[in-house]
Amino acid sequence: MTDPTAHPDTKTEVDELLAAYLDNELTETERSLVETRLAEDESFRSRLDELDRAWDMLDALPKADLDDEKFVRTTVEMITVAASQEIQAYEQQRKRTALARQVGIALGIVALVGMGYMLTQWRLGRPDRVLVENLPVIENVDELERVDNIEFLEALRKEGLFTGETSDES
Amino acid sequence: MSISESTARRYELQDPDVRLMLLVRDDDAAAFEELMLRYQRRVVTVLEHLVGKRDLAEDLAQDVFMRVYRSRKSYVPGSRFSTWLFTIVNNVASNARRSLARRKEVQVTNAAEQSGSQPANPMERIATAASGMMPTRQLDKSEMGSIVRQAVESLNERQRMAVLLSKFEEMSYADIAETMGMSVQAIKSLLSRARANLKEALQPYLQEGTVP
After folding, report:
1. Which residues lie across from B211 on neighbouring strands?
2. Which of A96, A144, B122, B203 could pair with B154 in a Cys bridge, judged by C-beta atoms 3.0 to 4.6 Å apart?
């Protein structure tokens, strides 16, 4: 708190104190101290008077002369137009969102069907693939049955005969 | 910033305009019109002194009320209604001044070149206003209004806003601080400097409203 009984060093401090006094922003104690000094100090009182009179001159500022009804009407119309535009924009956005959702669902269904189809094909095709993989053995099953030497068969496996990848092919 | 229920309740009980705004929140059109009728002149007056143009002030005031209406659903009373409203006014005016400043960058130079003997400084304009060379005479109402307006225009933007809120809205330092997003101490200094500047600008007219 500024001590109003002391003589402030600067005019700024005095002005701040007096402005707060005029604006009724001082505590009771501060107000009382300012009033005491006002009674004693002519220059302090004179400064308060100048600031107060300059402030009072603001009453001469022209006030807005408004056609109240017209202002309300036009403002409400503007709000109505803006609200209707907002509703339209919201509706369009809602439609776009709904369309995007439907397209997303459709694409999801298509993807699921595709994946299901591929999975089914993979599952159904599995026995055939085993047969294809073992085709070299199946084709030669009669000859292979006659072989009773396990080392010979092991050598054929290493050569890749059973997988169809013989050293001749490579 | 969240506002406690007790604070909201307190302002609802204390401030009839808060109660009206709560009705607006519930889509009561009549309450909105009532609020506009109560505040539109005050808003236009403040805006006119902030932006210096009547037509623009009215457009901006409509923008202010549109913002109020748009914000209704999220409105929670955390201060007096006028404090909340003039915070919007302050923001709208700041945006408008920034736009005007950008547009005027070139115009100001041209105007200064064309004005010839007309002083660019508002303080100087005040000194030469109202027939400064004429003998001492009583100022009429419109002359006085013009001089005081120029004195207010000579204040910087923040001082002007603080002065208008203090003088015409009779706001406390705390409410002005909230409206302008500043501290109470800053508002205290701002208003003190504004008063001193006004006193300086109006010094020649303080004695019985005369022109020297």
Report:
1. B137
2. B122
CB B73 within 8 A of CB B4: no
Residue of A149, A93, A19 lying closest to B192 (CA atoms):
A19
Confirm whether A4 is domain-assigned.
Answer: no
How many domains, in total, are found in chain A? Answer: 1
Q: Within the 126-165 window of chain A, which residues sit less than 8 Å (CB to CB) from chain B?
A: none
pLDDT of the residue at A170: 41
Q: What is the DSSP letter of B137?
A: E
| Chain-chain contact of B145 with A60 (C-beta, under 8 angstroms) | yes
Dist CA A63 CA A100 (whole Å): 54
- CATH number for B5-109+140-208 (one of 1.10.1740.10, 3.40.50.720, 3.30.540.10, 1.10.760.10): it is 1.10.1740.10
State the pLDDT at residue B62: 95
Confidence bin at A87 (pLDDT 50/70/90)? confident
Q: Which helix (H) or strand (E) holds B55?
A: helix B54-70
CB < 8 Å to B192, chain A: 12, 15-16, 18-20
For the segment A108-158, what is each residue's pLDDT rounded down to a tens digit?
A: 999 999 999 999 887 777 767 777 777 777 887 888 787 788 888 888 778
Q: Which residues contact B120 (CB under 8 A, 6 or more apart)?
A: B112
CA distance A25 to B192: 12
SS3 B211: strand
Average pLDDT over residues A8-20: 82
CB within 8 Å of A37: residues ≥ 6 apart: A4, A5, A44
Low-confidence ranges of chain B (pLDDT < 70): 1-2, 104-139, 208-212
What is the residue-averaged pLDDT of chain A? 84
Picking from A15, A53, A71, the nearest residue to B206 by CB comes out as A53
Q: Which two tokens stand for residue B8?
A: 């909201």
Q: Give the model's confidence band at A23: pLDDT under 50 very low, under 70 low, under 90 confident, else very high.
A: very high
- The minimum CA-CA distance between A69 and chain B, rounded to whole Å, is 8
β-bridge partners, B138: B210
Q: Is the pTM of this model over 0.90?
A: no
Burial class (CB in 10 A: 0-12, 13-18, 19+), B126: buried
Residue type at A125 in one-letter notation: G
